[in-house]
Every structure is written in C-alpha cells, then in structure tokens.
Write a structure and sequence with these properties.
With about 375 residues, this protein is of the alpha+beta class. The protein contains 16 helices and 11 strands.
C-alpha cells in the first residue's frame, strides 16, 4: 500500500477515516473515467455508503449544486445579481498541503483515504493512496470490500448489488443507466435511518452545504469560495414581523408562539433563564396576543402556561424552531448571532448587540 502525507498546520479540514477522496493531481483521469465519475456517480456513492464509506468527487458534487444559492446562503447581504466568478475545487488544490517530497507527475489518478491518528506523525496526516488503474469498476468494488466498514457492508449487501450489476453491464457494454436518486432523497433517507426528526431536517441549501462539510475535503471549497460574511444585519421588528434590513430586508418567519418568545428575548438583552420564564408570563402573553390569529383566550393562556412551565419541554422545542428559522436563511456562523443561545443552566440570550435592534410596534 502506498501513502501520502499532508501537513497538519496547512490542511484546512480535519480528515475523517470513512471519507474516500478521488485524487487526480495532474488532471489525467477525468476524461478516462468520465462514465464512472459522472454518469454512474450516484451508483458509486451508494455502494460506498453501503460499505460505510463516503465517496467524494467534488467537481461532480458541484454540478448538482446551485452555487449561486449557496453563495447567498453564506453572504445574505449580497444583492440578487451579485455572484463572483470562480472555478470550483480542483484536485490540484490538495497539492498545496502535501509534504514537499512527492513528485506529483508520478501520482496516477486514484483514491486517498485517511488512515487514522495512529498513523500520523507529529506534523502530518497520513492517507493511503490507491491508483484506480485500467479496470475502474472492479477496482472500486474490491476497494469497498477491502477498506469498508465490513459489518455495515455485509449486513446491507442484499440491499445493494449495484457494483455487481454495474460491473456486469459495463463488461457487456450495455448502454442503459442505473436510475439516479437526487441529493435530497439520499440525505432524507440517511436522516430517517439515523432517527433524525424529519420535520426538523435542514433546508435544501443546508443539506448541500453539509454534504460538502461531511466529505471532509469540502472544507477547502467552503473556506475558499463561500466565506461567511462578517457583516451583521440590524433587526427591525415591524408590528410583530421580523425583518433584516441589511440582508435585502429578508423576513424571518416562524410560528406565532415561537415568534412571541423570540420577541421577549429581544426585549431582554441581559438574558432569561428558562426556570425564570414564569415571571414573564404577562409580558409573553401580551406579545402572543399581538401576533397570533387565535381567538380563544383559554387556548392562548394554555399555550403560554405550557411554554413557561419549567417541567415541560415546550420552551426547548420553540427555541429549536427559532434556530431553524434563521438556519433556513444563512449559515450558522451568521445565524448564531440571531437565535436564542446559552449554556445549560445559564441565562439564555440573543447575541446581537441591542443597538442593532429597532422596534415599530403599536401602542
């Protein structure tokens, strides 16, 4: 087995041992392996996933993405037509982080995979390097069987069989293609398998961004191309509606009770412990009555009692909805300044400076 090392202090991401990265330092294999890397990409990804591995070919991931939308997710202050021209990640970018004693001209297109901390030296990460060769489908099948998480692979093998069919089809030169599943379908399926609350699954943009992040090497692209803005927008509360004037007057929408809680915390920059919420019932009730469309006073009072009851989980659920309302619109590095946050047992608060909050309310 061959190895490649990368400097720890240069590599802009922490490698993961289950991520397998297609690496083509000289750009020689994209045309040679075009069918494998483009036409059959979803099939390859699925086979690696069944083996407990994540296959990463960033140029193909980029084709599936709306880069303009992702750019605005990281830069909400940008105008609708503001979108920089750039080329997406290339394999040569990784050369910047390799130790100097490698001759890139001798590196054939192949797969690299992080070997784990026990293989690292003090200043470098160690990756295995496996050339793809002239029989790519057979090589990938053998790679998953040899390097995959064997329990995951064999337990779910009956669900797959993709490589067997794909290998046979290409050997017979059959032109038909395996049906493809969308990024969204794969991500939701993964979320369901991991018992994630599907109602709280991230927005499509967040899924695409997270797909880059989980591929490990995607941090290079995220840091280089989608640097989150350092500019925070003011908040303007207009008759119970929440607007961000400096982010193209974007409106943040959330359910009425969640919004009432959010406005309560905006009013109290010092923060409020969840256990002290019963002391704010009257103020919260007034805010909720202002923005809710419900007519039944008993239902309104019951909702307020539930959310301010420290023995119930209602306030945590509402704060999760508030957080998701902002994460739907922009990256967490920005959103964390706007949603309610705080350590366990401490006062929860909104980090945005109070001077950046303006109000336009009746009365």
């Amino acid at each position: 087995m061959q190895y490649i090392s990368f400097y720890k202090d240069r590599l802009p991401f922490k490698p993961k041992s289950n991520v397998v990265i297609y690496f083509d330092a000289m750009g020689l294999g994209v045309k040679k392996y075009y069918q494998l890397l483009h036409e059959e990409y979803d099939c390859v990804v699925e086979n690696f996933r069944l083996g407990g591995l994540e296959f990463c070919f960033l140029p193909k991931i980029a084709e599936d993405m709306d880069l303009r939308t992702i750019y605005h997710y990281f830069n909400p202050q940008a105008s609708e037509n503001d979108f920089p021209r750039f080329s997406f990640y290339q394999d040569r970018d990784l050369l910047e982080y390799m130790v100097e004693d490698y001759d890139e001209r001798r590196l054939e297109p192949g797969l690299i995979q992080y070997m784990g901390e026990e293989f690292d030296k003090e200043d470098t990460y160690t990756f295995s390097y496996t050339p793809i060769g002239d029989s790519p489908y057979q090589m990938l099948r053998e790679y998953v069987e040899r390097h995959g998480v064997r329990e995951a692979f064999f337990e779910r093998r009956e669900r797959g069989g993709f490589f067997e069919r794909l290998f046979q089809r290409n050997r017979e030169a059959t032109p038909s293609r395996v049906s493809e599943s969308s990024c969204m379908e794969r991500y939701i399926s993964a979320a369901e398998e991991e018992d994630v609350d599907v109602e709280m699954v991230m927005s499509e943009v967040q899924m695409l961004v997270e797909r880059l992040r989980q591929s490990g090497v995607g941090e290079i692209a995220l840091q280089r191309l989608f640097r989150p803005t350092q500019e925070l927008s003011r908040i303007h509360v207009r008759y119970g509606r929440i607007f961000l004037p400096d982010y193209n007057n974007k409106e943040i929408k959330m359910p009425p009770l969640s919004k009432a809680i959010y406005l309560l915390y905006l009013r109290h920059p010092e923060g409020i412990k969840f256990s002290y919420l019963p002391d704010y019932r009257r103020e919260l009730l007034n805010l909720y009555e202002l923005i809710t469309g419900r007519d039944n006073p008993e239902d309104i009072q019951r909702s307020i009692d539930d959310v301010t009851d420290p023995t119930r989980n209602s306030i945590n659920e509402k704060c999760s909805r508030i957080k998701q309302a902002f994460l739907r619109e922009f990256d967490d590095s920005i959103a964390k300044n706007y949603y309610i946050t705080g350590d366990r047992g401490e006062a929860k608060k909104i980090l945005l400076p109070q001077e950046m909050i303006t109000w336009e309310m009746p009365g």
